[in-house]
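Allow me, if you will, to draw on your knowledge of protein folds for a short while. I am sending you one protein, given as its amino acid sequence and as whole-number tokens for its backbone shapes. Kindly check, if you would, that the fold set down in the tokens agrees with what the sequence suggests. The record follows directly beneath this note:
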Amino acid sequence: MSPPIDFSLRRRTLLAGTAAAAAFSAVNRGGAAAQSTGATAGPETTTVTLSVNGEERELTVDNRTTLLDALREHLQLTGTKKGCDHGQCGACTCTVNGERINSCLSLAVMHDGDEVETIEGIGQPESMDPMQAAFVEHDGFQCGYCTPGQIQSARKVIEEIRAGIPSHVTGDLTAEIAITDAEIRERMSGNICRCGAYANILAAITQVAEESA
């Protein structure tokens, strides 16, 4: 004779099993409905036109392609870096219509007709942007991987402060916002430097802010 089975039904197990069964049933119903109506999926690719660094570029991309991958893989603009690919490190920062974004979190098809600026459009070694020159002067980079995103953000940080856009550390919202170390650090907190060159980055941004005041 077989020994009795020691079995107990717990509330968590019951709920998990019920949810899984409901999900499976919904998927099956959806598939059956699509087959019965003859519904088909939409196109998998889309052709978009981007103005990249002042040049109009047309490309056909998979609808799931991020703006970051469109820049790097389709347009070969590899200055914009892929770091975490989850919007947490800032290495992929570029600007769209004048606003900085994490390009790894944005689909390319969302930006048809938009103006995109990457690090390649800011300056070249023989003619650097003031922020690029300041990063070089203050050694604001070590491995350099995060530097394009740091520079893109740094330039916009100064613009945002002067436009009166407050941050979490802004005190008096009725007064002109000063370009302080605290403001810069807070606004640059989304750009991670794994080499730890934060003090040098701060010095570079402060210099550019003072020279352009």
